[in-house]
């Protein structure tokens, strides 16, 4: 069976990202950025997925994971080491049980078998600490299937992380590529130029003895 991708949500109008991939007999949920997980609560005895892969900890990709974990505690949730540490910031009022982590960490650059014939490899995506490009490899007697899900990624280096190392992905030749492209056609000034402009405005405001408030997205 060829891989299939079903979209619960694709990020329109701030609704978050939540995708279901079917590859062989396996059903994999890619991110769960929806606030309302009711579409995932099927009336059948079968859970909506066999496992969840979280690309990074931003709310539009992860905010529904707590509700999902509470509804389906038996379904494992995986992400990079840093992502597993940052996820709880999405639910400041929640008190996690240290003995029951919501997610399990996966290493960088190492293919980990999560199900029979199914391995997952994470590559740094450069978007924020812990953000990952996910390579899913499914092996059958007839052939191998490769799927790459980029999540949000950034090619240039930033103050917090290095950009996505494209060289590590060359030659993978995926059968399916799920690519984030929300801002792919926009042209932006150089990051260092924007940082210098912000620093200059902050300096002028401090000199004028203004109070400063810097809202940042979560």
Structural class: alpha/beta
**Share of residues in helices:** 10-25%
Low-confidence stretches: none
Question: Can you summarize the main beta sheet?
Answer: 6 strands, mixed
CATH topology: Metallo-beta-lactamase, Chain A
Mean pLDDT metric: 90
Q: What does this protein structure show overall?
A:
It is a single chain. With 218 residues, the chain is an alpha/beta fold. It has one domain: 4-Layer Sandwich (Metallo-beta-lactamase, Chain A). 16% of the residues lie in helices and 26% in strands. The chain has four helices and eleven strands; from the N terminus they run ββββααβαββββββα. The strands form two sheets. Strands 1-2-3-4-5-6 form a six-stranded mixed beta sheet. Strand 5 (77-80), helix 3 (81-86) and strand 6 (104-106) form a beta-alpha-beta unit. The mean pLDDT is 90.
Key terms:
alpha/beta, globular, 11 strands, 218 residues
Topology:
Blueprint: E1 4-10, E2 17-23, E3 26-30, E4 51-53, H1 59-62, H2 65-71, E5 77-80, H3 81-86, E6 104-106, E7 112-115, E8 118-124, E9 132-139, E10 144-149, E11 176-178, H4 191-207
Please summarize what this structure is.
The protein has 218 residues and is an alpha/beta fold. The protein is built from four helices and eleven strands, in the order E-E-E-E-H-H-E-H-E-E-E-E-E-E-H. It has a single domain (4-207), classed as 4-Layer Sandwich (Metallo-beta-lactamase, Chain A).
């Amino acid at each position: 069976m060829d891989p299939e991708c079903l979209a619960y949500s694709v990020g329109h109008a701030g609704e978050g990202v939540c995708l279901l991939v079917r590859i062989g007999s396996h059903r994999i949920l890619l991110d769960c950025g929806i606030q309302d997980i009711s579409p995932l609560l099927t009336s059948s005895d079968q859970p909506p997925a066999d496992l969840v892969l979280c690309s990074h900890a931003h709310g539009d990709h992860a905010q529904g994971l707590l509700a999902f974990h509470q509804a389906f505690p038996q379904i494992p949730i995986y992400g990079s080491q840093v992502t597993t540490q940052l996820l709880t910031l999405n639910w400041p009022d929640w008190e996690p049980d240290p003995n029951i982590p919501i997610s399990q960490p996966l290493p960088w650059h190492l293919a980990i078998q999560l199900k029979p014939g199914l391995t997952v490899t994470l590559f740094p995506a450069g978007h924020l600490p812990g953000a990952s490009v996910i390579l899913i490899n499914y092996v059958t007697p007839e052939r191998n299937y490769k799927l790459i899900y980029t999540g949000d990624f950034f090619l240039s280096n930033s103050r917090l992380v290095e950009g996505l190392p494209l060289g590590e992905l060359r030659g993978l030749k995926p059968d399916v590529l799920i690519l984030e492209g929300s801002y792919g056609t926009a042209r932006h000034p150089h990051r260092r130029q924007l940082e210098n402009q912000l620093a200059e405005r902050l300096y002028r405001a401090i000199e004028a003895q203004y109070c400063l408030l810097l809202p940042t997205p979560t």
